[in-house]
């Protein structure tokens, strides 16, 4: 029987009371970063700063594992994205690495998952999975992880555990997280393709101290970059009434009025709902995310929709849009629509399920315009049914305001976040092997198996002449209606290198287009009117102190803005009353807006100035 190597160190420097004290003080009662640094540095010897020696790893293959080209795929002209290759196993004898992951319904049992078994077979690396309760990014998962760190029982790596940039820098500076810069240079192949294709991704995942502590999760999703503002209109009603797609706020108001008064569903009842949204807890769809584009650049919010809600760069200075005169004008317009009965009052209280019940209503359609991320937010989507109701909804472009302003909110930095994807800990005896294992997930066939399941069951390579979503030669074709069955894929976990070209190279049948193709076409309407990139606040690394300042203030600002959007729109507060508006703005200031903006300014300056 071949010897099995285990990757986790039992070095006392990474276990015992020191970790319990660290978490109790630093995370529990907010011990200063300086005090924590001094304490842990004495235990762990500090971090491995950028440019330091590469940790010894007798198992990792310098330059990456040996591989040969995979000639099965046909790459579209100008393709930039993951590349297919046949890689040799990473090790000659089975090696076990301990990796902590979140619970996920789509993955099921991580050990028995079909992709897990395939990946172990081709790498030779066995994973001892430690699953923490709670979905990725949940507070439940982070609570379990913090307890694990407190106990000193560090795994070799964490994957899809949502360590914030502040936590990455703090844990990295104390030697709990291993800097990956030199390991990537020495042992990785696929991530270098990412950095070459997206130089900004490397910048985004590089902390203020110059170190990279996480392998990135890249998903350059074209339609995701404008999803927070999409407004959907039922085009058959426009056609029935002989109306054109509105291009201005006044024309939009006229269309809504016609929907109310002219019985577009032709059932003889005044049952049409002209405009509706939702206030789903944790993922609301504010009407202002669409309407403000007619008055100003609105980066959007709340935080569940866009990092750093409503913040932007005003001549290089971090500022917020929700206290500006143009913002007031946007709410004034929303109030005008509401007073005329053109916005359903449920928009500010109902959740997604309530909205979907209206969208899925049997019989006559009653829903005219919807503020939602996509069709699936307000009805069931059956991509195989060409006559399904969802096909009738198309996007309303950003409307021209009174002075001609029409600015779409485009997320230039949405392709990758700076929260953790894959982190190697100081307990790992084979850090080079760990990053090589993670790096292999970025390879093209691995990406397709991660997303669709087995080859020739969930997907296949495209044939010559098959066209992708963007009209170019296709790269692959899905053989299932996504998502796959549970237990055969990783539920969009693991690591991702889904470039824009990769996503758009999915083969489509013109007679039966997928969900992705029309979403791509509709989203192009917002791309044309996107804001200057210099207005968007890029991703920053907050220090522990800055994160402590901003977290509570951000939540208070979100609640204040969303509550007042409802109050001013529905007339509970008079948007035309200067005193009411000034009270709203003054309350923002009392919440701590000045300190909030200062913290982000300092973080921005530290990284980009």
From TrEMBL:
Region (Disordered): 46-77
PANTHER family recorded: ARABINOSE-BINDING PROTEIN-RELATED (PTHR43649), DIACETYLCHITOBIOSE BINDING PROTEIN DASA (PTHR43649:SF12)
Protein name per the record: Carbohydrate ABC transporter substrate-binding protein (CUT1 family)
Organism listed in the record: Thermasporomyces composti
């Amino acid at each position: 029987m071949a010897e099995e190597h285990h990757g986790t160190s039992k070095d006392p420097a990474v276990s015992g009371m020191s970790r319990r004290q660290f978490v109790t003080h630093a995370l529990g009662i907010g011990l200063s970063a300086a005090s924590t640094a001094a304490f842990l540095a004495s235990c762990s010897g500090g971090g491995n700063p950028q440019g330091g020696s590469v940790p010894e790893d007798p198992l990792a293959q310098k330059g990456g594992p040996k591989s040969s080209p995979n000639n099965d795929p046909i790459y579209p002209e100008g393709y930039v994205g993951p590349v297919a290759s046949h890689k040799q196993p990473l090790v000659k004898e089975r090696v076990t690495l301990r990796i902590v992951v979140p619970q996920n319904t789509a993955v099921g049992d991580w050990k028995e998952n079909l992709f897990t078994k395939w990946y172990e077979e081709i790498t030779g690396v066995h994973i001892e999975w430690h699953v923490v309760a709670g979905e990725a990014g949940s507070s439940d998962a982070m609570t379990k992880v913090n307890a694990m760190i407190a106990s000193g029982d560090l795994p070799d790596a964490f994957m899809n555990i949502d360590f914030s940039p502040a936590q990455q820098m703090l844990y990295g500076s104390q030697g709990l997280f291993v800097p990956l810069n030199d390991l990537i240079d020495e042992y990785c192949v696929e991530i270098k393709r990412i950095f070459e294709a997206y130089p900004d991704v490397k910048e985004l995942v590089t902390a203020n101290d110059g170190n990279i502590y996480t392998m990135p999760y890249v998903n350059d999703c074209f339609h995701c970059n404008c999803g927070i503002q999409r407004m959907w209109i039922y085009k058959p009603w426009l056609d029935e009434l002989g109306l054109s797609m509105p291009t201005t706020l006044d024309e939009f108001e006229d269309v809504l009025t016609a929907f109310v008064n002219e019985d577009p569903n032709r059932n003889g009842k005044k049952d049409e709902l002209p405009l509706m949204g939702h206030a789903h807890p944790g993922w609301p769809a504010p009407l202002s995310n669409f309407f403000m584009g007619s008055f100003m650049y609105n980066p959007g919010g709340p935080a569940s929709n866009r990092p750093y809600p409503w913040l932007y760069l005003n001549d290089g200075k971090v500022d917020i849009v929700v206290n500006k005169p143009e913002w007031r004008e946007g709410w004034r317009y929303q109030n005008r629509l509401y007073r005329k009965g053109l916005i359903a009052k449920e928009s500010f209280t109902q959740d997604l399920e309530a909205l979907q019940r209206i969208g899925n209503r049997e019989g006559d359609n009653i829903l005219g315009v919807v503020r939602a991320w996509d069709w699936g937010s307000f009805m069931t989507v059956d991509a195989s049914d060409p006559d399904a109701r969802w096909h009738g909804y198309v996007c309303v472009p950003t409307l021209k305001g009174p002075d001609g302003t029409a600015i779409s909110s485009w997320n230039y930095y949405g392709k990758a976040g700076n929260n953790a994807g894959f982190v190697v800990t100081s307990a790992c005896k084979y850090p080079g092997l760990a990053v090589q294992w993670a790096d292999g997930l970025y390879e093209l066939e691995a990406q397709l198996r991660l997303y669709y399941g087995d080859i020739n069951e969930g997907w296949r390579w495209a044939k010559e002449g098959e066209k992708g979503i963007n009209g170019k030669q296709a790269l692959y074709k899905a053989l299932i209606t996504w998502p796959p069955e549970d237990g055969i894929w990783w539920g969009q976990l693991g690591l991702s290198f889904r470039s824009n070209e990769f996503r758009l190279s999915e083969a489509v049948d013109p007679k039966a287009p997928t969900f992705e193709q029309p979403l791509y076409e509709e989203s192009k309407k917002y791309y044309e009117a996107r804001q200057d990139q210099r207005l968007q606040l890029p991703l920053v690394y907050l220090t522990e102190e800055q994160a402590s300042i901003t977290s509570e203030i951000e939540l208070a600002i979100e609640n204040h803005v969303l509550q007042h959007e409802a109050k001013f729109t529905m007339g509970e507060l008079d948007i035309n009353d200067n005193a009411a508006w000034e009270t709203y703005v003054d309350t923002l200031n009392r919440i701590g807006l000045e300190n909030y903006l200062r913290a982000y300014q300092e973080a921005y300056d530290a990284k980009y100035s």
